[in-house]
Amino acid sequence: MRKEDCFYLGKIVSKYSYKGEVLAKLDTDEPEAYENMESVFVLMKGNNLVPFFIDRSRLHKSDLLRIDFEEVKDEASADRIMGHELYLPLAMLPPLKDDQFYFHEIIDFSVNDKSIGDIGKVVGVNDSTAQAILIVDKDGKQILIPITDDIVLKVDRKTRTVFVNAPEGLIDLYLT
């Protein structure tokens, strides 16, 4: 499995017991959707995704997932995967309503502003800041547009277009 074919689920953050159980911090609004997984990919050294099978998993304090892996049955084994990231295949993402979208799916979509019209293509999304930001390329220039309900009006999957209503002057700021 390639990393490009997967989505980031979370990270193993601590050991839970001397029997190898670990706690994973999930990067999701609905952690309960991942409570009964059979397996998960663990990102190991060399950027390799390795499948790990799960004996049992359950929520722990609402946003942590307590995982008992088949292959991890002692503290030393748990130490080897500590801090490693967890991934699942893109096909396992829950379906979204029409007005919602996953960041990875809008890459290469056209961006159309309500006032200006076509302003370029989505080349990425920066979600490491307090506010997620759409990264748009317009003839080699980068335009950054905050992703909010007021600004992102609609994502049309059929035409592969993101419709926005950028604040007045924002796009011109990048193009001048």
Automatic annotation (TrEMBL):
Residue ranges constituting the RimM N-terminal domain according to the UniProt record: 9-89
Keyword Transcription regulation: no
Organism domain of life: Bacteria
UniProtKB keywords: Chaperone, Cytoplasm, Ribosome biogenesis, rRNA processing
GO molecular function terms listed in the Swiss-Prot or TrEMBL record: ribosome binding
InterPro entries listed in its UniProt record: PRC_barrel-like_sf, PRC_RimM, RimM, RimM_N, RimM_N_sf, Transl_B-barrel_sf
NCBIfam families: 16S_RimM
Assembly behavior: Binds ribosomal protein uS19.
HAMAP family per the UniProt record, alphabetical: Ribosome_mat_RimM
Protein's job: An accessory protein needed during the final step in the assembly of 30S ribosomal subunit, possibly for assembly of the head region. Essential for efficient processing of 16S rRNA. May be needed both before and after RbfA during the maturation of 16S rRNA. It has affinity for free ribosomal 30S subunits but not for 70S ribosomes.
Record's comment describing the protein's domains: The PRC barrel domain binds ribosomal protein uS19.
Name recorded for this polypeptide: Ribosome maturation factor RimM
